[in-house]
Amino acid sequence: MKTIAIAGTFDSKGTEYLYLKDLIESQGLKTLTIHAGVFEPEFEPDVSNKEVAEAAGEDIKKIAEKKDRAWATEVLTKGMEILVPKLYKDGKFDGIISMGGSGGTALVTPAMRALPVGVPKVMVSTMASGDTSRYVGTSDIVMIPSVVDVAGINSISSKIFANAAFAIAGMVTFENTKKVEHKPLIAATMFGVTTPCITMAKEYLEQQGYEVLVFHATGIGGQSMEALIRGGFIQGVLDLTTTEWCDEVVGGILAAGPHRNEAAALCGVPQVVSVGAVDMVNFGTYDSIPSQFAGRNLYKHNPAVTLMRTTVEENEEIGRRLSEKLNMAVDKTILMLPLKGVSMIDAEGEAFYGPKEDQALFDTLKNNITNDKVEIIEMDAHVNDEAFAIGAAKKLLELMNK
What we know:
By secondary structure, the protein is α/β, with parallel strands linked by helices. The protein is built from 14 helices and 14 strands. Strands 7-6-8-9-13-14 form a 6-stranded parallel sheet, with helices on both faces.
């Protein structure tokens, strides 16, 4: 019989969690209740808050006595992050569900993120209708808007809780019986303006017997790829679209953070890297662009996205940042530079055509990469030319075959 872990604050929301527990058990499933609150629960849990606190090296009684909510939440979050994956590894549950407001969501989702991809994870939250990236991260947590606060059982909450209970029940009960052929995985990065390149490279690699996972370089896309590389899922990386560095350096809305391009380098995963779409910083609507960028070369990609051309100085800094990451490589890495343009609109006659800006980027990379494991290949081609796309794919296969 499958088991669903129910994790949350049973001291303040015991009634709601008991209702959820009854719904899940009515489907013929077992439950494993994990109390993550500070005080005494309204019902006896299977895993106590004492155990959660001890996982983080603290005493729950001292936590309660101190009456410091922020510190208590920090400790119990850490304990959950340690304990929950251990319980899963020990075979104690098959899926996990929780409910809460901002505090309860922040308390349990780190533990959910620590579980492997594919383990069913459901979070009913008041925060589910806004920016959920801080809770979901690069995991596969399913967030369900609670509509009303998670405070009591009423005509609205009862329906939402039931939907969530039956959703997690279905996730653990039904299994995919369709056979999927497992091929070696290659991760590739793409943006709208590098789509032709990645499409051609992907088709070529698939013809050679590989499966290609394409990540949209929108910040969370780069982070997700890095997480899968660190997790050991990826055998090769075709990171031709490193545009997220523009947003990280200049202050756009699609940054992937300061650790982008580290995973493959440090894990020794074969990689071919390029500078696709490094000509642009991403913003929202035209009127959302910060005032300090007035007068810059702007391009309306669509009604919701406005692009800004990177300058010579910005390209030099982006080049330095990317060089730092490539210098971390512990195994053979290839950097390919498309000398005729880095995006669909960085071509002669297009809005972002900028030979000086591109050259500043290329020169900075060549001058700052000191790791002899990194081979730099310059091609007299545009990033979206077939020669560049297939050339990059072939170089990656050479590295992987070694």
